[in-house]
């Protein structure tokens, strides 16, 4: 039931604040992350020496964001791999490896087979999943459910923000169990986490109309590029994937630092480029590097659409459009900056008269390899 919305996707994007809130709900006690499902697993978390995250598509991009959180808070090395790539190489995995799979449906064959392969090689497996009782969680040693609620539109939106949220919870939990996380950092992180739903709501309330208008103007666009750095990089990839899936426009995401190693050759006058701008408060280094990327592409005629923190005046002289997101600590920015990109992809497809819930050639859950 679309509940009065024009599409399931419109409803699911509107539910992004809720998807985050419900995933956190019941998992914070006395200023600490407590994940009841992981009771009795402390020894396992203390004993593992590395994490491999396995997933496909949008869930893989959530995993890429999770790497920054797990490494920073839990001080554990993390590799993030496409499940189908993991399975067919001679992966070095053993009992000291924790494999974290991420899947909205819990039925993705590529991810399931990779998890089974990892278990066969002796790894411990933990599933982050949105569907109670699905196959992947049943095949795993541990489960952390995301509580985004059923996702009906084929392309993933609210499940993505819930997956990143679950990875924050896991990283904070494992960080505490391993003694890697100070109480102070933990408390600050929980405050940030709990403030996210309201901030996403702010974007929906204040920016959605403008972004849809922008999408409307861009219906004849043939190619869109997305640039991001650090945690903004996986969001650039997600923005490009969603635009391809929903609007059938050619779109690519790049690491901003790669620009001069190749992608800058694509820039010609009028080329639209979304740039994920890190907060200027993050020691300013990343921010100023991304600003100089913007100058470089602008000098070559790019049309820059910056996704930037509210109050970041430095982007104004260089951007053709600025999509605002509320302030958040660096690791939490992705959950906010992805929202304008979801709205944009959905808005452009809608403006083109396409079916956003059921894009051509795609299936909600890919149960074949
Ligand atoms: C993108 C999308 C797909 C899925 C991927 C994994 O919008 O929906 O890329 O993210 O097929 O699906 P799950 O999470 O069900 O394993």
TrEMBL record:
Catalytic activity: D-fructose 6-phosphate + L-glutamine = D-glucosamine 6-phosphate + L-glutamate
UniProt-listed Enzyme Commission number(s): 2.6.1.16
GO molecular function: carbohydrate derivative binding; glutamine-fructose-6-phosphate transaminase (isomerizing) activity
Active site residues according to the UniProt entry: 364 (for fru-6p isomerization activity)
Any one GO CC term of the record: cytosol
Superkingdom assignment: Bacteria
SIS domain segment(s): 41-180, 214-359
Keyword Electron transport: no
Entry keyword set: Aminotransferase, Cytoplasm, Glutamine amidotransferase, Repeat, Transferase
Class of enzymatic activity (EC top level): transferase
Example GO BP: UDP-N-acetylglucosamine metabolic process
Entry's localization field: Cytoplasm
Subunit structure, as described in the record: Homodimer.
Free-text function comment from the UniProt entry: Catalyzes the first step in hexosamine metabolism, converting fructose-6P into glucosamine-6P using glutamine as a nitrogen source.
Protein name as annotated: Glutamine--fructose-6-phosphate aminotransferase [isomerizing]
Source species of the chain: Microbacterium oryzae
Portion of the full-length sequence here: 249 to 617 of 617
């Amino acid at each position: 039931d679309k509940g009065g919305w024009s599409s399931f996707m419109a409803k699911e994007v509107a539910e992004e604040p809720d998807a985050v809130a419900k995933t956190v709900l019941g998992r914070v006690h006395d200023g600490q992350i407590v994940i009841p499902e992981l009771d009795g697993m402390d020894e396992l978390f203390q004993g593992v020496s590395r994490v491999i995250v396995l997933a496909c598509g949008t869930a893989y991009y959530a995993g890429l964001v999770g790497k920054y959180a797990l490494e920073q808070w839990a001080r554990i090395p993390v590799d993030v791999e496409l499940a189908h790539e993991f399975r067919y190489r001679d992966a070095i995995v053993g009992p000291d490896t924790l494999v974290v799979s991420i899947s909205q449906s819990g039925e993705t064959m590529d991810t399931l087979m990779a998890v089974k392969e990892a278990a066969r090689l002796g790894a411990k497996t933990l599933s982050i999943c949105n569907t109670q009782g699905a196959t992947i969680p049943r095949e795993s040693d541990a489960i952390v459910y995301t509580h985004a609620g059923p996702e009906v539109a084929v392309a993933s939106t609210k499940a993505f923000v819930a997956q990143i949220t679950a990875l924050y919870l896991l990283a904070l939990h494992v960080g505490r169990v391993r003694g890697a996380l100070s109480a102070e950092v933990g408390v600050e992180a929980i405050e940030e986490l709990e403030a996210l739903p309201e901030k996403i709501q702010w974007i929906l309330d204040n920016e959605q109309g403008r972004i849809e208008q922008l999408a409307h103007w861009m219906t004849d666009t043939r190619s869109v590029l997305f640039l991001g750095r650090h945690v903004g990089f996986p969001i650039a990839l997600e923005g490009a994937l969603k635009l391809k899936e929903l609007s059938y426009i050619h779109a690519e995401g790049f690491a901003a630092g790669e620009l001069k190693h190749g992608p800058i050759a694509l820039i010609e006058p009028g080329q639209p480029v979304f740039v994920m701008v890190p907060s200027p408060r993050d020691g300013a280094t990343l921010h100023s590097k991304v600003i100089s990327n913007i100058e470089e592409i602008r000098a070559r005629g790019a049309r820059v659409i910056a996704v930037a923190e509210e109050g970041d005046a430095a982007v104004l002289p260089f951007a053709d459009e600025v999509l605002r997101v509320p302030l958040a600590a660096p690791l939490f920015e992705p959950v906010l900056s992805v929202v304008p990109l979801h709205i944009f992809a959905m808005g452009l497809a809608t403006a083109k008269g396409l079916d956003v819930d059921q894009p051509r050639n795609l299936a909600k859950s890919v149960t074949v390899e």
